[in-house]
Design goal:
Chain B: InterPro entries: NqrD, NqrDE/RnfAE. Chain B: Its EC number is 7.2.1.1. The complex is a heterodimer of chains A (415) and B (229). In chain A, α7 crosses α19. Chain A is mainly alpha-helical and 415 residues long. Classes of the chains: A mainly alpha (415), B mainly alpha (229). The interface between A and B is small, with 13 and 10 residues.
Chain lengths: 415, 229
């Protein structure tokens, strides 16, 4: 470590202003500050010296995402072999058990998830570098997290070039036009997902994209899914309930609960986007984020509370099978927990005031459930709910601050 | 007001003097009605899905603006200033009705696609803006030049946005398939390699983003256009 530091400092003068490699100073600075704290010192005003800078904070989030990533890799492998096993004469029938064929499943998962990661980081960092050169600053750290989040909220079968296009769109239009890291209005990773959702709907929804290699299975079986196999997610099944008026609500719900056991859903043994399925893995990440003080507990708790309360409200209204679904299901299926812990808590796009954070999280969770249950077109509401609240966050902050000012003025007048 | 303008005017001016040429060239870039004045945005978002629609829309606006600017400029000394907006509206409305009838008669399928947006030229801010800001105070010839400049400035932005949206939204330009055949089962060209048309390009929000990118490029090339806050 010491030797590396010495070597890097020996190179310092080569990247100074006017020196030979001046142009590459942003690149050099980025690389050195990965390993060591930056050497520049605040010159004006009071300041606290602390090793935890933006880069270290962002790394905490990446570390917190690792349980989701690892589980996502295995889950991807499992559902690939699960749908394979329905092909007539398949040798993988034993693999329908979740823990059988561990090695094969990990290998397949790696082969699908790693390319997503590489594309997301490659495209995003390349764009960040170009803007860094143009504007003359070092690489912004913000993309470390976005690059990890993007693969985790994609269906596994999404084509890689689409991920690249969406990443480029999100980084340029979602972030750089507003001035780069810390200036964006919308969450970058969710912008990428929303872009794909509206630009290439066939690659982002339906029942052919959630289990790796579904299209191959369909092609091998004369253009349709084999008997007994399904490519749908829990949310898609629930979506079908909204319009299914022929069967009784309680019967539909019973069938759904038999297929998606709450424990399985909590553990994440259900098909879905790569990293979002396991509520347990998300909660481990949440513990890391809360212990290191990176995420706000107010947002996470109020997000879950909002979703649960609106779920109860739907129960009280009743009407169709989706409304009658136990409220806790909303918290463990789809991307609800993932959105609450990793998306809504983004310090740039969330509300900044303490009271504002409570409102922000509560409304985001509530709107997510509202979109899920009420909107006939969208099976998942978490993405749109968080993006909507991102836009609303400054207004929430404004009213919280104004309320505070009014309260204090009143105290001043009565005193 | 128009009288004082006339008195101070130079007695004679060549038809294509520098000043008159500037009336045409200015709105093309540095004073573009869409990207700088941010007028006429609604139609730029609504009818730029295909180049053909954008072209006919531009032609319609060109006709209405040139004829309108000319009429208002000829009438400028007769219009009492208190009711000038109503007079201007009558002129636009009659011209728009003429355009609408002509489109219905000669290009009925286009007229069907443009539907209500031809009628909405009446509310296009560029037109009332030019009447109010230019034709009311200038002679007919400069007014025509001004109208031409502004219509061309409007048209090229419209056509550019439509080009991007049609190319990436439906893989075509003017109806010709650029990336290959997209029919299910018999894909060719890029589609056979897994390319998919971008559905978002067809939605109006993407038009706004494309216009935004044009504004971004324009202002980063000419820093003088960036407003101070």
């Amino acid at each position: 470590m010491k030797a590396l530091e010495k070597l890097l400092h020996k190179w310092d003068p080569m990247f100074e202003k006017g020196a030979k490699w001046e142009k590459f100073h942003p690149l050099y600075e980025t690389m050195t500050t990965f390993a060591f704290t930056p050497k520049h010192v605040t010159k004006k005003g009071a300041h606290i010296r602390d090793g935890v800078d933006l880069k270290r904070t962002m790394f905490m989030v990446v570390i917190a995402l690792i349980p989701c990533l690892l589980f996502g890799i295995y889950n991807t492998g499992h559902w690939h072999y699960e749908i394979q096993s329905y092909l007539p004469g398949s040798e993988f029938e034993a693999y329908r058990d979740y823990m059988t064929g561990f090695g094969d499943k990990v290998l397949y998962g790696l082969s699908r998830v790693l390319p997503l990661l590489v594309v997301s980081y490659g495209v995003g960092l390349a764009i960040e570098f170009v803007f860094g050169f143009l504007k003359g600053h070092s690489l912004h750290e913000g993309y470390l997290v976005s690059g990890m989040l993007i693969p985790l909220i994609m269906p596994v079968d999404v084509p890689l070039w689409m991920v690249g296009v969406a990443t480029a769109f999100a980084v340029i239009i979602g972030k750089e036009v507003f001035g780069g890291t810390g200036m964006n209005i919308l969450n970058v990773a969710l912008t990428a997902r929303a872009f794909l959702f509206f630009a290439y709907p066939t690659a982002m929804s339906g029942d052919k994209v959630w289990k790796g290699g579904t299209a191959d299975v369909i092609a091998a079986n004369n253009g349709m899914l084999p008997d007994g196999a399904t490519g749908a997610t829990a949310l898609a099944d629930l979506q079908a309930m909204k319009t299914n008026l022929t069967e009784s609500a309680s019967l539909l719900l019973e069938k759904f609960q038999a297929q998606y056991d709450p424990i399985d859903a909590f553990m994440g043994m259900i098909p879905g986007s790569v990293g979002e399925t396991s509520t347990l893995a998300v909660l481990i990440g949440a513990l890391i984020l809360l212990a290191t003080g990176v995420a706000s507990w107010r947002i996470i708790v109020s997000f879950f509370a909002g979703g649960f309360l609106f779920g109860l409200l739907m129960n009280a209204i009743g009407g169709n099978a989706y409304f009658d679904m136990p409220a806790y299901y909303h918290l463990i299926i789809g991307g609800f927990a993932f959105g609450a812990v990793f998306m809504a808590t983004d310090p740039v796009t969330a509300a900044q005031t303490s009271v504002g954070k409570l409102w922000y999280g509560f409304l985001a969770g509530g709107i997510a459930v509202l979109i899920r249950t009420l909107n006939p077109a969208y099976p998942e509401g978490v993405m749109l709910a968080i993006l909507f609240m991102n836009v609303m966050a400054p207004i929430i902050d404004h009213y919280v601050i104004q309320a505070n000012v009014k309260r204090r003025l009143k105290r001043l007048k009565t005193a | 007001m128009s009288e004082t303008v006339e008195k101070t005017k130079a007695p004679s001016e060549p038809l294509f003097s520098k000043k008159n040429r500037k009336l045409v060239t200015d709105p093309l870039s540095d004073n573009n009605p869409i990207t700088i004045q941010v007028l006429g945005i609604c139609s730029a978002l609504a009818i730029t899905v295909q180049v053909e629609q954008a072209f006919w829309m531009s032609v319609s606006v060109l006709f209405v603006l040139v004829m309108g600017n000319l009429s208002i400029s000829l009438l400028r000394n007769l219009i009492p200033s208190r009711i000038r907006i109503i007079v201007q509206l009558v002129v636009v409305a009659s011209l728009v009705i003429i355009v609408d009838e002509l489109l219905q008669a000669f290009v009925p399928d286009i007229s069907e696609k443009l539907s209500v947006f031809v009628g909405l030229i009446i509310t296009n801010c560029i037109i009332m803006g030019r009447f109010e800001a230019f034709a009311m105070g200038n002679k007919p010839w400069p007014s025509i030049m001004d109208a031409l400049g502004n219509s061309f400035g409007y048209a090229w932005i419209l056509l550019l946005v439509a080009l991007v949206r049609e190319l990436f939204g439906s893989g075509k330009i003017l109806g010709f398939e650029i990336f290959g055949n997209n029919l299910p089962g018999e894909e060719s060209g890029l589609y056979a390699m897994g390319y998919v048309n971008n559905n978002m390009m067809i939605l109006p929000p993407m038009a706004l983003i494309v216009v935004g990118i044009i504004i971004w490029v324009q202002r980063s090339r000419n820093k003088a256009l960036i407003e101070d806050h």
